[in-house]
Every structure is written in structure tokens, then in C-alpha cells.
């Protein structure tokens, strides 16, 4: 497997958010399906970005304190679970499209990983330096 960057995953995730929202709206003509997918994908994108910032800060400091490990990271996940719970309880969402939206980070990681397989010419140029 080749190494991918967080930036590639973020860009792919935003592209999936936009294309997926358009595709769901065109396929269903349902605003609630569009809303469900877009909100879930947005929540996961923001969560991924916050996790990236926490990890970058930990790498910059070169030390991991108990505050970071036992408070900041679990707090971020509690906020994520809280946001999902609020949307599910108070929002009129379509569950299937919401779950598809929650899986966009996983899909973007897979796409970023398999991109050289789909376009082997760019990988060959990187390896040969041309």
C-alpha cells in the first residue's frame, strides 16, 4: 500500500460530499435525503479535520500529556456523538442517507488509496522522477 496524506483524504472527502449530495438529489428529488447525506458528511468531515488538528498539535509539541490523551481526544468524540444524536433526535433525517453520509471518510480513504491503481501513469512518473 502506498502512503497517503491527510490533505488528500480531506480533499477527496469534500469532493464526495459535493458529488454525493448532487447525485442523491438528482436520484431521489428529495430534499430530506439531500439534507441527511450532507449533514452527516459535514459532521464527519469536521470531525476528521478536528482529529487532524489534535494529532498535529501533539506531533508539534513532541510530548503527549495526560490532558491531551484523557480529555481532548475523548471530548472530541463525545462532541461527535452528541452532534449525531442531536441530528437524529431533532432532525427529520432519512436514516439510510445519513448512514451513507457518515461513511464518506472511509470511502475517501479507499479512493485515495486506490487512486494510483486507477491512474498508474501518475505513480510511474513519481517513481521515475519524470
What does this protein structure show overall?
The structure is a single chain. With 130 residues, the protein is mostly helical. The chain has one domain. It is built from six helices and no strands. It has helices at residues 6-28, 31-61, 66-90, 95-102, 104-118, 120-128. The protein is flat and about 50 Å long. The two termini are 22 Å apart.
The share of residues in extended strands comes to under 5%
- The parts where pLDDT drops under 50 for at least 5 residues are none
Helix content: over 70%
Domain module count? 1
C-alpha Rg (nearest Å): 18 Å
Shape: flat
The quaternary organization reads as single chain
List the helices and strands and how they pair.
Elements: H1 6-28, H2 31-61, H3 66-90, H4 95-102, H5 104-118, H6 120-128
Helix pairs in contact: 1-2, 1-5, 2-3, 2-4, 5-6
Can I get a quick summary?
The protein has 130 residues and is mainly alpha-helical.
Main attributes of the structure:
130 residues, mainly alpha
